[in-house]
Amino acid sequence: MSSEQVDKKTNEGWFLYQKIAVIVLTAILIFILLNLVSLITIKIIKGKSSDKIIKTDFHIIYPRYSKDEIRTLWKETTLRSFQYDPYTQFRERPYQGKYVHIDAQSFRHNRNQASWPPQKDHYNIFFFGGSTGFGWGVSDEETIASHLQDLLASSNQPKVSIYNFSQGAFFSLQERAFFEQLILSGFQPDMAIFFDGLNECSVNEPLYTENLKLLFDGKTSPLFSQFPLFKIFKHFKKNRENKKRWESEEKNEMTKPIIQRYLSNKTMIEKIGKEYDIKTVFVWQPVPFYQYNLDLNPFIDEETKQDPRFYRSKNVYPRMETLFKDGQVGENFLWLADMQTNLNKPLYVDRIHYSDEMSSYIASKIYDFIEKETEKKTQTGDNSLESVKVS
């Protein structure tokens, strides 16, 4: 082979190498660009609640907050991570912010929060729920539990200490496990309140179950699944799957087991409460998808209507109302699902979470319910909070 032929083949090889290198480099740059766009999109999705509030008349929802304070509040609300828990799968991680404070025991602080462990000379109430009970989008003193403690503190009752053990994404099964865990650890309240409804219509199992299944099967999530591009694809894919699931559940009546699961957990909690002399109260919460004018919630959009909580609540809530009116859920059950029917004002800080004003309304309803139960004992001459008989 002559030197010219060698040079020609060398040049052809170099040209081919350059061509492949340009293609690969271009693909990498496109991949990086798409991931940057996806990352920005994810941040927009996570931060759109505060941005949308600010773009609307935010003084209606946050009358005491500036724009910067709203952004800080929502950063503290959303940019936190859970910690592992062997009983409930996960719990809220300790956190100290300007508006959000979470104790090492995973309860959120109220106004004038009592210390841990609970004092025996106080009337101690453990409050369980999901993110609506936790108080997403409101400060410590604006949660339902905090407002309830304020009301009880102002009445002629013994010293009341409420511990808000509501955890983001929890539903009745996890609340029962958390309740049991606290008792096993030696912390026995006088009363336990369970605030549910929304997440019963959302989840069938704890949040990270699929990830744990992969772990026990000796599998791990593919490396590419950690890239923003994959996460944003998964987000929109999930919305499409939710829509298909809705259509399937509408046809096959798949929401009935939700009620049975809730009632079974309620029964088990009641039996535990009876055994340990803990009074139990169960509250079925209001949601924007039931007995409320959605035009008053500026955060409801087409994506919301693909959320399982939206379409399942349309089936679950009417059935629960029938059970309640038929007296099949017990005297310790407080029905609040229709409390917002005539409240023609904005009550939510995002699609599903309550404003300070709504949290206050709910707390007053719970307070009235506890007081009503107390009045049943007036003939005995004992009108203290400890006389409440609701378990």
Description:
This protein is of the alpha/beta class and about 400 residues long. It has a single domain, classed as SGNH hydrolase (Rossmann fold), CATH 3.40.50.1110. Helices cover about 50% and strands about 10% of the residues. The protein contains eleven helices and nine strands. The protein has helices spanning about 5-55, 60, 65-80, 130-135, 145-155, 170-185, 210-215, 230-250, 255-275, 310-325, 355-375, and strands spanning about 80-85, 90, 95, 100, 125-130, 160-165, 190-195, 280-285, 335. It has a five-stranded parallel β-sheet with strand order 6-5-7-8-9, with helices on both faces. Strand 8 (about 280-285), helix 10 and strand 9 (about 335) form a beta-alpha-beta unit. It is elongated, with a radius of gyration of 26 Å. The protein starts with a helix and ends in a 16-residue tail after the last helix.
Write the layout of secondary structure elements.
Layout: H1 3-55, H2 58-61, H3 67-78, E1 82-85, E2 89-92, E3 95-96, E4 101-102, E5 123-129, H4 131-134, H5 144-154, E6 160-164, H6 172-184, E7 191-196, H7 209-216, H8 228-252, H9 256-275, E8 279-284, H10 308-325, E9 333-335, H11 356-375
Keywords summarizing the entry:
five-stranded parallel beta sheet; 391 residues; Rossmann fold; 48% helix; alpha/beta; elongated; 9 strands; two-stranded antiparallel ribbon; disordered C terminus
Radius of gyration: 26 Å
Could you say what the CATH topology is called?
Rossmann fold
Give the rounded overall mean pLDDT: 84
Strand tally, please?
A: 9
Unreliable parts: 377-384, 386-391
What sort of overall outline do the alpha carbons produce when their principal axes are compared?
elongated
Structural class: alpha/beta
CATH class: Alpha Beta
Determine the number of helices (DSSP H or I, runs of at least 4 residues).
Answer: 11
Lateral arrangement of strands in the main beta sheet: 6-5-7-8-9
CATH architecture title: 3-Layer(aba) Sandwich
Percent range for β-strand residues? 5-15%
Q: What string gives the helices and strands in order? A: HHHEEEEEHHEHEHHHEHEH
Overall tally of structural domains = 1
Helix share bin: 40-55%
| CATH homologous superfamily identity | SGNH hydrolase
Q: Ends: how far apart? A: 97 Å
Biggest sheet record: 5 strands, parallel
